[in-house]
Amino acid sequence: MSLRVAVVGSGPAGIYTTEALMKQAPGTVEVDVLERLPTPYGLVRYGVAPDHTSIKSIAGYLRRVLELPGVRFLGGVELGRDVGVADLLDCYDAVVYCTGAMVDRRMGVPGEDLPGSVAATDFVNWYCGHPDVPADRFVLDSSEVAVVGVGNVAVDVVRVLAKSAEELRATDVPEEVLARLADSQVKAIHMIGRRGPEHAKFTLKELRELGELANADVCVRPDEAVADLTDASRQVRGNVEVLRGWAARPPAGRPRRLDIRFWMRPVEILGEDRVEALKLERTRLEEGRVVGTGEFEILPVGMVLRSVGYRSVPLPGVPFSESTMTVPNEAGRIRDREYVAGWLKRGPTGVIGTNKSDAAETVRTLLSDLAGRDPVRHAGLDALLASRGVSPVTYDHWLSIEAAETALARTLGRGERVKLLGLKAMLDACGR
């Protein structure tokens, strides 16, 4: 059997899907990986914190998949803008959608749309150099900032806010962003959880990193570190033990302060023309549900970053469930010759590696469905894109962008790589 498959999205889910196709297909298979950006790797490039170099090393594994014979990277090609679903089904035997879930859920409180109230993923994209977010998107001119959420993304955000620019100098943070971090006026960071410490979603490793901050004291209120550890996992017990340790130690007088709060929920963001404060309500559990106690507190913050969960967005021409924020599917199958993998398939759960088994399931379904079927494709994507004036960014172009970022780091005396910021800079670097 000879197959030609389009994979839409070049993050971990898309590349693991590509790898599974190359390994599982009984005959020849060609895979085109379509990506709207000129760069591959998705959240590995634009979602992993710049100081987490060990996680970023996953890009080396993903690179090897893109370099397999029969695999092509086609950057700068967007579904709905440059090609439609019908176009792809004309050109390929099957299409797999792997575009992730990187849009933040809203908190649903008054004042959420005030300037200064933003999604944590916007901030993450900013310090990770995502071309959708310009360098001037954030001005850290407030002395106090609130981060709502107690998951690993929230921990990444508060860690970057707490560190000095010098501590981030050896990372790949774009130079323009590093300059704004150096000008930060932030002195106090509040990380806020609606439930108790035993319910927090951060991992022990991520949490412990906060205790190693040289530029910030980590503070926890003793009464908020109380937790019911009955039937608690080893992970939860470790988290609570760390938090209780911080609650028992006095601040050391470092330049910044990180307050980790529990049993508090945002009820309103206050301000006239921009965020001026965050109103919180003390909470408790009632039959497993978080309820307010009527006890309020106001934090004088100038920015609120929400990190309360993530969701996928609909793709043009692809079924989508607004209730689950995923594409309805059966073991990855959407409908004839259309499939889905990753967070778009199952929701934002699991770690990067979870996408590997998820992709393998989708590919098994795809290969079973197409076994013995004659190819139905009758068009070529290259000719279609050329007729529309679309010239994809190739893998060789991407390597030129990488080389330019490595050269920039050498010029600036900054680590192994400094990301280019903006589409123009990246396209200029690869001669486009």
Q: What do these coordinates show?
A:
The protein is of the alpha/beta class. It is built from 15 helices and 17 strands. The chain has a 6-stranded mixed beta sheet with strand order 3-2-1-4-17-16, with helices on both faces. A hairpin with a 6-residue loop joins strand 11 and strand 12. Helix 7 packs parallel to helix 9. It is globular, with a radius of gyration of 23 Å. The model has no long low-confidence stretch (mean pLDDT 94).
In short:
The chain is α/β, with parallel strands linked by helices and 432 residues long. It contains 15 helices and 17 strands.
Q: How many distinct helices?
A: 15
Q: What structural class should be given to the helix and strand makeup?
A: alpha/beta
Counting DSSP E segments of at least 2 residues, the number of strands comes to 17
Beta fraction: 15-25%
Average pLDDT number: 94
Task: Give the helix proportion (percent range).
Answer: 25-40%
Q: Main β-sheet: number of strands, strand sense, barrel status?
A: 6 strands, mixed
Low-confidence stretches: none
* Shape field: globular
Strand numbers in spatial order across the main sheet: 3-2-1-4-17-16
User: Rg from C-alpha positions?
Assistant: 23 Å
**C-alpha end-to-end distance:** 37 Å
